[in-house]
Amino acid sequence: MIVAYGIANLLQSVAAARTTVHHTFDPGLLLRLAGHRTYLVGLLCQVVGFVLAFLARRDLPLFLVQASVAAGLGVTALLGVLLLKWRLPAAEVVLLVLLFGGITALVLAARPAPSRQLGTAGTVALLVALVGIAVLGFFAVRLHGAPGSVALGSLAGLAFSAAAVAARPLASAPTAEAFLGNPLLYLLVGHSVVGQLLLGLAMQRGSTTAAVAAMDAAGAVPAAIVGLLLLNDKIWPGREWLAAAGFLVTLAAVIGLTRYAEPQHHHAVAGDRKRAMVGAARVG
Questions:
Q1: Strand, coil or helix: what is 36?
Q2: In sequence order, which residues have a C-beta less than 8 Å from that of residue 188 and are 6 or more positions away?
Q3: Domain edges within the chain
Q4: Quick one: which H or E segment has residue 111?
Q5: What pTM did the predictor assign?
Q6: How far apart are CA 182 and CA 101, in angstroms?
Q7: Which residues face 111 on adjacent strands?
Q8: DSSP result, 235-264
Q9: CA distance 64 to 184
Q10: Tell me: the pLDDT tens digits for 56-101?
């Protein structure tokens, strides 16, 4: 899952940076992005990661699975440095090391357990959250640069967090009929689509690292809290301190990455456009 999400982030960000920047909450962006083969391959990787995460949520607590999604950021950064010549400041290297240390602590603290069912009130709350996130996205899309990237990435994280909350009890459906007839399935799809659109918009306005880090930071806390309070997420006795330390270190590292991230793609796109203009002038 971590590797799949890391590759997906990289490929989708490349496609998003090559697409005209949108200043409206327009679902047509997803159709335009679908015209890029790079984006489609990235989307396929994301689907693979999504399926693996869904299966993991059947028994593992959300604080572990959602924090592990953040580790995909390390894969994205590493591939960006190796393949796209991204610059990775020393501060980001330290934060990535902390990120993987935090994930390791969470793995040691997490205790597998089946999920409780969410109930009618929880289902209604997820529906209200879907509408609220979409409305906030409509206004946040007017922001530009790094603030827009972080705001839209954060909203995408909330959408994916709500999708994770829906997925945890849904993964325990006993039959295919119960799975397809469960309203959580359609809330899962709705939150995932909205989150995907918001993430695409976020990647257009700043760096991949900033957009994805903001998404992971905003998505980790709500799912962890809901999982522990309502969905029977468990921690091994005596390891509560390890879970808390791992979660805080992971969250701090992810938030820190938004501070040090460079807008790599937009610099690259601007450079490509400048070279094209210079070439045209020489031809003229």
A1: coil
A2: 163, 166, 167, 170
A3: 2-283
A4: strand 110-111
A5: 0.78
A6: 37
A7: 234
A8: E-TT-HHHHHHHHHHHHHHHHHHHHH---H
A9: 21
A10: 999 999 999 988 887 777 787 778 778 777 777 777 788 888 888 9
